[in-house]
Amino acid sequence: MKKIALVGCGRISKRHIEAIQGTDGAEVAAVCDIDERKAAALSEVLQVPYVTDYTKLRDVDAAAVLTPSGNHPLHAAEIAEHTDIPNIIVEKPISLTVREAYDLFIRADHAQKRLLPVYQNRYNPLVVFMKNLISSGRLGNIYQFVCNIFWSRNSQYFEIDWHGTQALDGGVLYTQASHYVDMVHYFFGEIAESKGIGGSLRNLEVHDSVSAACKFTNGTVGTINATVGTYRQNYLTEFTLIAEKGTIRLSGTNLNTIDFWDVEGMERPDLDFTLDHIYGKGHNRLYEYFAGEQWHMFPTREDILSGIRLMERLSY
Q1: What is the pLDDT of residue 82?
Q2: What is the C-alpha to C-alpha distance for residues 103 and 26, in angstroms, rounded to an integer?
């Protein structure tokens, strides 16, 4: 049984708890938060011990770092250096800059610990299908894409102390749209050219709306548009792909629906891509891979650094 400590008892911890509890061979063994009330409350619900200092964690197989985004590299590095925990699971993004990501990997290497970043959308069935289709070459040359993430976050959301801050949030491409930035990187590889224009229309320290154009080394060009400013509720998540031998449009929760399909010599796939969770089921798959020690199913270091480089280039 793999024992996991949760470091951070905020909103995303609930999703990790669901995924761990749904995974054979894994269990939550401890929780940690600097806010003792949060840690104690979750400890009581789960009937596991709690601490307020993550360097005091012991006797677990992994620590899942679920703290504010800008704290991820520091917290993950200190857990690696000051505990005997062999595996550090880090929620997205692992850092807000490439420099911090390099530093984190160096410190984890020196401590002889394994970093396991959370890129759960890569495990969603339709994303996996699209990756395999693109890699197969059946679409020929990939000409262009459009990825739109038009979401809503109300004023109460930004009353949470770290939301909307430069130091800990990073902006819409990091905190809300990072999985879709990672997805286009996953599909198309290394970035060659880019230009991002952002606006802080709600007087935040970070961009709440971004439009970015990019060209990848394989020649594919495309745009990513993201906002948290849509009125009252999330409006749209979509991805359109224009290729030599096909046009495809995806939409829905975590891109789980094929809206348009016109591919040479290939019928629209008769597969069920339904997801019954707002976050998708990628976290479940992640913990299954962790419990089974399938380390090859996690992104490589080079892949992670390349993705952080793309986010940084588009954001600043």
Answers
A1: 98
A2: 29
The span from the CA of 67 to the CA of 3, in Å, is: 19
- Domains belonging to the chain, first-starting first, are 2-119 (3.40.50.720), 125-263 (3.30.360.10)
Closest CA to 70 of 154, 174, 143: 174
pLDDT band at 65 (very low <50, low <70, confident <90, very high): very high
Give the residue among 294, 291, 266, 286 at the shortest CA–CA distance from 119.
286
Burial class (CB in 10 A: 0-12, 13-18, 19+), 77: buried
- Give CA separation, 108 vs 22, 99, 286, in Å: 29, 14, 20
Cis peptide bond prior to 93, omega within 30° of 0: yes
Q: Which tokens hold the place of 145?
A: 């894409």
Q: What is the mean pLDDT of residues 256-266?
A: 95
| Residue 119 and residue 92 in contact, taking contact as beta carbons nearer than 8 Å | yes
Q: Are 184 and 255 in contact (CB under 8 A)?
A: no
